[in-house]
Amino acid sequence: MTEPQKTEGVGEAFTPGEPIDIFLLARLGFTFIFVVITALVAEPYLASLTWALVLAVVFIRPHRWFETFLGPNSAAAISVAVVALIIVAPLLFIGQRLIQEALAGVDYVQRAIGDGKWTTFLDAHPWLSWLGAQIDVPTIAARGGEFVTNVGASLLKQSTGQIITMVLAFYMLFFFLRDRNAALDALVRVSPFSRIETGKIIVRVRDTIYATIYGTLAVAVLQGTLGGVAFWWLGFPSPALWAVVMTVISIIPVLGSFVIWIPATIYLAVEDRWADAIALGLWGGVVISTADNVMRPMFVGETLRLHTAPAFVAMLGGLQLFGPPGLILGPIAFTTTTLMLGFWRRRADPDLQPK
Fold first, then answer.
1. Contact by Cβ (8 Å): 284, 258
2. Bridge-partner residues for 7, per DSSP?
3. H-helix or E-strand containing 204?
4. 80, 60 Cβ separation under 8 angstroms
5. 353: Cβ–Cβ under 8 A, 6 or more apart, which residues?
6. Closest CA to 93 of 216, 244, 260
7. Partner of 75 at 20 to 30 A CA spacing, among 199, 269, 292, 297?
8. 14 forms bridges with which residues in the sheet?
9. Straight-line distance from the first to the last Cα atom of the chain, in angstroms, rounded to the nearest whole number
């Protein structure tokens, strides 16, 4: 009579026909409860943890160079300072530039309406005369100025929360860099998978972060270049500067280059440059937007050997579920889930075990 075959899995072996171990179920239940509690406690800081992890992965090589000359604490402190300078300085420059241009745009519209330029514009285009009769332009302009002011105040309020998130991210980055070896060892010890499998998961997460970040940077540079070429062709001042601005804005998940080219299109229309306005609108809506919505998933999916459609769903679904950190967490969830399912498949079928 053959001995009952044991099913290999995580934790204690289970033999078919044996009574269920109540204490094992209790331990699993308590463990699950406290894992959920821990996740809920950490959830408010998910964004900071995500960006700290991303920055630690991206800047680990320069940090290792600092460690060759300095101690762990000094190297981590200098690395955090360098990363903060690289990230914060461009954001401050771009933010200041956008605020200046927004205020200048509102002032331009109000002055144009006050000087009667809107009436002259309608008189020059009789086919738009019905628009002047239907719309109280001065009132709309005044309300538009109030709207821009309110949006600016709202963005300022939200930026306070983002500043806190970034400060916490830099604080956690210090420990991620300094204590990374101890953290990885602890992760291997508590992982329900084997040491080799856990190592593969860590490598997959690292590769996903690399692919997402460098794919995002590549698409941002492409969008900025396309926008800069359009601005140069249409005779806008400082097209190279606007190319840089659109590149940086394209990196931010909640924004995009449309923040620049849509107002520019409206400006060209108001200036009676209809052909240029239509050309810029089509260029921005078709070419530049396509670079973001199509090329980004293609870059990320090709690097991760993931089809473009799942990569697209992972990024957009991650953004919807987690907010800006979802741009990273979505692809990580997809790729690690695929890897872990492969682990379980090999456990269930011995023929799939590597020879």
1. yes
2. 14
3. helix 195-233
4. no
5. 346
6. 244
7. 199
8. 7
9. 31
Measured CA to CA, the distance from residue 7 to residue 28 in angstroms comes to 18
pTM: 0.68
* Residue pLDDT, tens place only, 307-349: 767 777 887 788 788 877 888 888 888 888 888 888 887 776 6
pLDDT tens per residue, range 128-179: 555 545 555 555 555 555 555 555 555 555 556 677 888 888 888 998 988 8
Helices 137-178 and 72-114 sit at what angle, rounded to 10 degrees? 180
The sign one gets for the Cα dihedral 302, 86, 232, 257 is positive
- Which of 23, 7, 5, 12 minimizes the C-alpha distance to 192? 12
Q: Which residues contact 4 (CB under 8 A, 6 or more apart)?
A: 15, 16, 17
Residue with token string 């992890």: 53
d(CA 29, CA 20): 14
Look up residue 32 and give its amino acid.
F
